[in-house]
Amino acid sequence: MIRLDRLTKAFKLKGETRYIAKDVSFTVPRGSSVGLLGRNGAGKSTLLRLIAGTIKPTSGRIIRLANVSFPLGFQGSFNGSLTGEQNVRFVARIYGHDTDELVNYVQDFAELGKSYYMPVNSYSSGMKARLAFGVSMGIDFDYYLVDEITAVGDSNFQKKCRRVFEEKLQNSDIIMVSHSNAALKDYCTTGIVLEDGLLTYFANIDDAIALHDENMARR
Amino acid sequence: MWAVLDPVLTIAILTLVFSGIAHVPPLGRSFTLFFATGYAAFYMYRSTSDQVASAIDANRALLNYPVVRPYDAVIGRIVLQVATLFVVNLLLFGGLWFVVPFEQIDLGPILLASLIAIVLGAGVGASNIVWFHLSSTYQQVWGIINRPAFIISGVFFLPDTVPHPFREYLLWNPLVHVVGLFRTGFYPTYRANYVDMPYIVGLAVFSIVFGLFLIWLFDAKLRESK
């Protein structure tokens, strides 16, 4: 379960305060996967980072009674001068996972070949995403935080991701940022729409998509 | 690799230039040894403060893991820097020994001066992470103000030869003391009476405690990019 307790997150930009969330409280129960919808710049990725705990709320708090992953996104979370394999070792250690097991798992999963032993700086964005996806799938989290990363790689890799993801969904939930309605419907049961600092929670993802489409048509 | 080449090249250039201007170094007979002892001490401070100041920006991607805190990146960088400097100094003075064999060295003051230089550098670097993050103007100003630090830190002269009152002004610079202390380990006859131990030890301890405190205090702010 993840609980947002009177959560406020604001940014000051040139003297103007912009709210991502303003005094928001609600609970995401275990067993439901959430899709985050909103226009560009609404703060979907920021909300994901807040839930992960990589950034702190302006006020209020987030209570996580679950094992939450790091946010998986395109920007990557790797040290560029280390090789892919060394980065995986690092992640295994900080999460207390068996190092060799994770290294082997990601080697099989990400199919990076020789590049696995080359510095991440030399990777394409697709290769980085494969590595990131592999690492997080190798560790058992209750919640996987996914930022627009499902459409990674070629169709073979996508099929594989989908298969592993569906396996994971037996025991885990995902919180996902996506602009693809199809992906949201595939993976999520509930939805949150972000608009002007307001978060609206829907128990049914279809209702969330409907409101989001309406928002987009309006402005 | 540049960690080794930087001091080696700087010392080589200083030696070339100054042996052209003067005939005898202020201390001993070898220009190379005089500049090496001065620059090595200065370099330990300067490289540590630069490296630590960039610790968080260099590891920003790793802050994407919630369990990794800015503090960890700073501590990691300090440990890495100590290990690097150990190897650099070993290579530098090991190599130097073949060029100008120094008679006897006293490890006590050398290690103490190195420790103070590194702690001071780490403290200044850690505070600068926060100040640079809050103000890019300050970052520019810091760069400009610190450019002459090399000149006024006693790398290529001894404070003993500087006339009053400039000598007193000069001694406000803790690096002058560190360089002096470092040199006493290589020149058994050199006294360096001006070295004020309580001043530099106090300043080093204060800077590291203050720097790490700032990192801890601004944890949330440092997690967000500028």
TrEMBL record, chain A:
One family name in Pfam for this protein: ABC_tran
GO molecular function (one): ATP binding
One GO location term (cellular component): membrane
Database matches in InterPro entries: AAA+_ATPase, ABC_transporter-like_ATP-bd, ABC_transporter-like_CS, ABC_transpr_TagH-like, Bact_Polysacc_Export_ATP-bd, P-loop_NTPase
Keyword ATP-binding: yes
ABC transporter domain mapped to chain residues: 2-219
Assigned protein family: Belongs to the ABC transporter superfamily.
Official protein name in the record: Putative cell surface polysaccharide export ABC-2 transporter ATP-binding protein
